[in-house]
Amino acid sequence: MKILYINHYAGSPRHGMEFRPYYLAREWVKAGHEVHMLAADYSHLRQHNPQLSSNYADQDIDGIRYTWCKTPRYEGNGLKRVINIFRFLGRVMGLSGRYLKQWRPDVVIASSTYPLDTVPAAFIAGKTGARLVYEVHDLWPLTPVEVGGMSPKHPFIRLLQWAEDFGYRKADTVVSMLPCAKDYMTEHGMAPEKYVVIPNGVDVAEWQGASEPLPAEHRMRLAELKADKRFIVGYAGGHGLANALDFLLQAASQLPQDSGVHLVLVGDGPDKAALVSQAQALGLNNVSFLPSIPKRAVPAFLAECDALYIGWRKLPIYRFGINPNKLFDYLMAGKPVLHSVEAGNDMVLDAGAGISVAAEDPAAIADALQRLAALTPNQRGRMGAAGKAYVLAKHDYAVLAKRFLQAMEG
């Protein structure tokens, strides 16, 4: 089968996030299928963006044919990002001749977070007789309206709404990463039988391989805490508003002096300086901030922790479900997880992999930290084992790729 995968922000191990398109496509290539990936050369998510000297460049990455489309740089979510989006869409249409004449796909996947790529994807699918798959990451334009505060009457939001509804109507299959979005999608024109949930996952082989060692600064700090018999609760990831780390710091301020709990926050992000200042203002001596580490070093860090934390803000958009990549790494590490959440689903609760408490509730977070520290190593080990078994059964990309293939085949 020939699969054309249109994902503006698609990454790879060479370039950085986002990884889902790469992991799925790699499994399809292993199964004997041909995959062409269309992506923009510039994405705010990647650590390394490809450098183009012309409008297009082809690159083979583990058997996947990437075609990078030249687009302008941008910062933030302003006009320059909108220009970047439309330039990418124009580049995709500029390549349509390749797929109508030279390499006719059997399946076309529109998968760019925003729904506007459903239009060129539907055009190519219609001209070639290919099946059209609309892969939904987040609900746009609902996310920029509810989270970003944009007006539903804004012309760009109206255009996004038209494109989203168009995608639900035209697609042969709608693949949703959100487990609780079916009713919303049917209200916007999707036939219920089109709906398939295929969440994010983890590359199990990557976890089973040799991980990269931690930097010396991280090893030394963790060794000091272990020598002091501290109960280490780790966090690895972005330090931004959405990660609700400010509530974790408030919880740390409520812990008794003799609790033995120490928080180690690894990563970087736009709010890190403010979080460090907050910890200083609260006089916290039970929190350590450490720099970000390479993706392959994350398993080594998680292995040194006794428990792990992930938190969310109270946002109505989460009623449709959540699908955090970070959580799959946590569960694969076999450690108990403290999950501060209010959403349509809760994988920690479903897996029996730790303790779940309300979002934005420092008192509940502090109580859960103490409860985890009071458990025996065997009790925490059983939680960790349950979480790992859950991921292997439901979120291995090898398993998810097969389910996606079945959905594409109708």
| Rounded Rg | 22 Å
Query: What is the assigned CATH homologous superfamily of the largest domain?
Result: Glycogen Phosphorylase B
Kindly report the CATH topology of the largest domain.
Rossmann fold
Number of domains: 2
Task: Profile the largest sheet.
Answer: 8 strands, mixed
Strand content: 15-25%
Question: What gross morphology would you assign?
Answer: globular
With strands numbered from the N-terminus, the spatial order across the biggest sheet is 3-4-2-1-5-6-7-8
**Which CATH class of the largest domain?**
Alpha Beta
Number of helices: 17
Which stretches are poorly predicted, pLDDT < 50 over at least 5 residues?
none
The chain-level mean pLDDT equals 96
Protein name: Glycosyltransferase WbuB
Pfam families: Glyco_trans_1_4 (PF13692), Glyco_trans_4_4 (PF13579)
Organism: Vogesella fluminis
Domain Glycosyltransferase subfamily 4-like N-terminal: 16-201
List strands and helices in order, with pairings.
Layout: E1 2-6, H1 20-30, E2 34-40, E3 56-61, E4 64-69, H2 79-94, H3 96-102, E5 107-110, H4 118-128, E6 131-136, H5 142-146, H6 155-170, E7 173-176, H7 182-187, E8 195-197, H8 204-208, H9 216-227, E9 231-236, H10 245-253, E10 261-266, H11 272-281, E11 287-290, H12 298-303, E12 307-311, H13 325-332, E13 337-340, H14 347-351, E14 354-357, H15 362-374, H16 377-394, H17 397-408
Parallel strand pairs: 1-2, 1-5, 2-4, 5-6, 6-7, 7-8, 9-10, 9-12, 10-11, 12-13, 13-14
Antiparallel strand pairs: 3-4
Helix pairs in contact: 1-17, 10-15, 13-16
Organism: Vogesella fluminis
Domain Glycosyltransferase subfamily 4-like N-terminal: 16-201
Pfam families: Glyco_trans_1_4, Glyco_trans_4_4
